[in-house]
Amino acid sequence: MIRHWKEPERKQWMLALTVGTACLYIGRMILPISLVAISHEMKWNKRTSGTALGAFFWGYTLTQFPGGYLSDKLGGEYVCLVASFGWTMVCLIFPRLPDMSSNPLFVFNLFLVARVLQGICQGFHFPSIGSCMANRVNGQEKQFTYCFISCGAHIGTLICGSAGSIMLEAYGWRSLFYITGFLSLIWTLLTRRLLLSRSYPHEKLMLLPTSQQSTFQQKAMPFNFEQHDSTSPFNAMPSKLPTESPVSPTHEKLQLNAAKITLSSIPWKKLLKSSAFWAMIFAHFTHNCFFSILLMWLPNYYSDNFPDAKVWVFNVVPWVITIPTVLVSGKLADKMMIEGYSTIFIRKFMSTPVLLVAGILLMCLGQISNYYLSLVCAALTIAACGFHSSGIMLNPQDLSPRYGGAVYGIMTTIGAFSGFLGVYMVGYILDVTKSWILAFQLTGALCVIGWIVYMVFGSATKIA
């Protein structure tokens, strides 16, 4: 059933999902932050370390589309919380892996399995949020809401880089996994108890056949829906809060249609034949490759090139200004939408710093020998990524509002594959050539190509 969050409810979920996203990224960033210590203890080389980092994306790729599809079918809130419980358990088990065997190869394989499982569970998170944006949030609030939640990723990275670096030096890498797992478990249980059960008191009905759910929900939750301008990218979304009027035939039809979303009902042919769809996919592919490389390898870059630098400084400074850029991009996109700019102009405008500017800065980063200049360049590069939340990340809802979660899942599945490929290839390049310049220049050039493709073929016209 399609139901918008009321305003107080939207703010509560927005805050809760921001905290959950921060926990998710802390859990994701622990291994990159502690990789030097773990590699030293386990005697891993750069190629082995790259495989361990990239294994996360093996699992992450598998659940992007299922995450979007299940979120459209069952509700993004449910899927998000169930998945968070899964990766939290993996996080708590991770520190015990070296104690399970004295065979280094067996322990390494356990690390790979744990990383894959973590990726599988975390892969549900953003598709479920994308589905919530398509089905729970009003059109004019979507961009800021999504950007606010996306800030959690940078907050989590910032917390892990600062407090995590200090704890790593004081208590060792195992402590990071235990504390993160414990805090994430508390978030999951509190959100389940305070928000999910209160907002959806009949959540157990999700186990019923969809026809029975629809029948009950039509009786229990009467909502009115308006017709919308077909030129709006959010034209399939309701715009009024619930009233006490009886269920209208239009509303009943919308509810039944929402309940009948299946794999076969998704307009695959229209999507696969659309150049706008593939432009969106490729642009996100290049961005995700670039961002994953920075996320996983930047701590190693500074450890190799500036070994005397304080760990917490280069794990914090590049991420500090990203949070305001994410929020500013969301507010700016909403303002541009209200002022009448076309949706595709906004998407392309926001994608320019993400791909073009960041790509050029990354190509410069590897050639900078001054520590402080490299921090500034890295900070500007990562800050430019903050505009992605108001650009390509919202394009699936433009192209297919009804199947927004599923299309988002397709996009992020392919994007997640680029994360694994990019992280592994950087490890391979470093192991063979020892050249950070080559690794960064290839990645930056890929971003620029992605920008050109999106500028030429990108669109926000509804496909299905």
Relevant terms:
0% strand; 464 residues; mainly alpha; 19 helices
Would you kindly provide a written description of the structure presented here, covering whatever features stand out?
The protein is an all-alpha fold. It contains 19 helices and no strands. It has helices at residues 7-42, 46-62, 64-74, 76-93, 104-122, 125-136, 142-171, 173-199, 210-220, 249-259, 268-272, 275-305, 311-320, 322-338, 343-365, 371-384, 395-399, 404-433, 436-457. It is globular, with a radius of gyration of 22 Å.
Write the SSE topology.
Layout: H1 7-42, H2 46-62, H3 64-74, H4 76-93, H5 104-122, H6 125-136, H7 142-171, H8 173-199, H9 210-220, H10 249-259, H11 268-272, H12 275-305, H13 311-320, H14 322-338, H15 343-365, H16 371-384, H17 395-399, H18 404-433, H19 436-457
Number of helices: 19
SSE arrangement, N to C? HHHHHHHHHHHHHHHHHHH
Query: What would you call the structural class?
Result: mainly alpha
Gross geometry: globular
Q: Approximately how much helix is present in the residues?
A: over 70%
Number of strand elements: 0
Strand content: under 5%
First-last Cα distance: 19 Å
Largest sheet: none
Unreliable spans: 202-259
- Which radius of gyration do the C-alpha atoms yield? 22 Å
Average pLDDT taken over every residue: 80
